[in-house]
Amino acid sequence: MKPRVFTSVAEWRAERASERFAGRSVGFVPTMGALHAGHRALLERARAENERVVLSIFVNPTQFNDPTDLAKYPRTLDEDVALAAGLATDVIVPSPEAMYPDRYRYRVTELEFSRELEGAHRPGHFDGVLTVVLKLLNLVQPTRAYFGEKDWQQLHLVRGMVEALFLPCEIVACQTVREADGLAMSSRNRRLAPADRARAAAFPKLLRAGTPEAAAGALRGAGFEVDYIAERDGVRLGAVHIGGVRLIDNVRV
Q1: Which residue among 143, 174, 205 closes a domain?
Q2: Which one, 43, 109, 147, 203, has least CB within 10 Å?
Q3: Is pTM, for the whole model, over 0.90?
Q4: Which of 68, 55, 124 is nearest to 94 (CA)?
Q5: Which positions of the chain have pLDDT values less than 70?
Q6: According to the model, what pLDDT value does residue 153 have?
Q7: CB 141, CB 26: distance < 8 Å
Q8: What's the domain count of the chain?
């Protein structure tokens, strides 16, 4: 079944208040599009656990500290809606103007964990993430929202925000889906040249090497530019660049 697509926030809000949602559990999968099998796994989990499933596709400008990165982000709406068929009942595709009528004057800021790791290398990134997630949760009003564990820091910050602001939504963590060679699925992978894509498969393997310092050294030796390798709560997290593309991942240690 093809999902219903809403590009107007006003039309979506009217739909959300309609009888089609009355008394039904709602699963929500927020994305920036360019969907892959990892996103499909989130939708399948949401479909299994809820009566309605809402997918959002919104390339959020406020979480990009690099305008070039924003411009290069793949936009594949028709393919995304096709991938969601039979899983999502509704797809919302709002415009930046509709999502930020205040021109981003109001925002959510976390003052501690968001300044580390990704936040240290991408100033303002998590303000944009948390702000847009809060807006989307308010628009969708889901019973459960599904996030991948690949974005480990994001997952923990979103969960913390939901708890701190008393939002009536369960945040469900879903295991990272990987390619056959072990590379975590990401919309950015499609930007890798074939030779760089082959080399990128070493990232999760080398991330596990010895200490964080040893892992960073091994990655540099394999041709990666390393932003950080760190450990938090039994998880080793890393961000690297290869072929001009930035990749993140995490592994249990």
Answers
A1: 174
A2: 109
A3: yes
A4: 55
A5: none
A6: 98
A7: yes
A8: 2
